[in-house]
Amino acid sequence: MASLQDIRRRIDSTKKTSQITSAMQMVSSSKLIQIQKHTSGYLDYANHVEAIVAHLAAAHLLEHQNGSSIPFITQRPVKTTAILVITSDRGLVGGYNNQVLKRTDQIMREQKLTKENTVIFALGGKGSDYYAKRGFTIAFENRDITDVPKFWEVSDLVKEVTKQYAARKFDVLELVFNHFINRLQMMLLTNRIHP
């Protein structure tokens, strides 16, 4: 049977663990509030830009005068698919990474994608590691994305995607990511892009 001193040590240990957990919750809560402030303005802007581009593409206003269309909006037969997987660099994010990776695997099964006809672009180390271990081609990876990414942090990705699409390394791009709704809810989204 445990002595009185052992019981006191356990109680003290539990109290200290509780204090550490409380401090971690406060830090994550303040980070969340900060991120919410930064992202609220971006969502409206992104939605407007997407609507304008879709409208212009539908109206065929993005065609050259000689009749040939711009290669970045012209659909072509899909031989190779690129998937942009957005995960975290580390663990401790609950089911966030797991949901993204499961959905990506599901897309691959549904579209009968294999290692030979799939290219992976990865933001976050978990997605990159997961698909590298399974033998997929990792066309681009960035493990140093901050909580509130700046333009220069993702510009290398945009350049690489554009370069590889122009070189016909892939024909369609799928994005798989978790969209933040509120503290309790995230929505897993998949967007297919015909660049």
UniProtKB/TrEMBL annotation:
Coiled-coil positions: none
Keyword Membrane listed: yes
InterPro entries: ATP_synth_F1_ATPase_gsu, ATP_synth_F1_gsu
Molecular function, one GO term: proton-transporting ATP synthase activity, rotational mechanism
Membrane topology, as annotated: Peripheral membrane protein
TM annotation in the entry: none
Main location: membrane
SUPFAM superfamilies (UniProt xref): ATP synthase (F1-ATPase), gamma subunit
Keywords in alphabetical order: ATP synthesis, Cell membrane, CF(1), Hydrogen ion transport, Ion transport, Membrane, Transport
GO CC entries: proton-transporting ATP synthase complex
A Pfam family the protein falls into: ATP-synt
Organism domain of life: Bacteria
Function: Produces ATP from ADP in the presence of a proton gradient across the membrane. The gamma chain is believed to be important in regulating ATPase activity and the flow of protons through the CF(0) complex.
Family: Belongs to the ATPase gamma chain family.
UniProt-recorded name of the protein: ATP synthase, gamma subunit
Organism listed in the record: Oenococcus oeni ATCC BAA-1163
Encoding gene per record: atpG
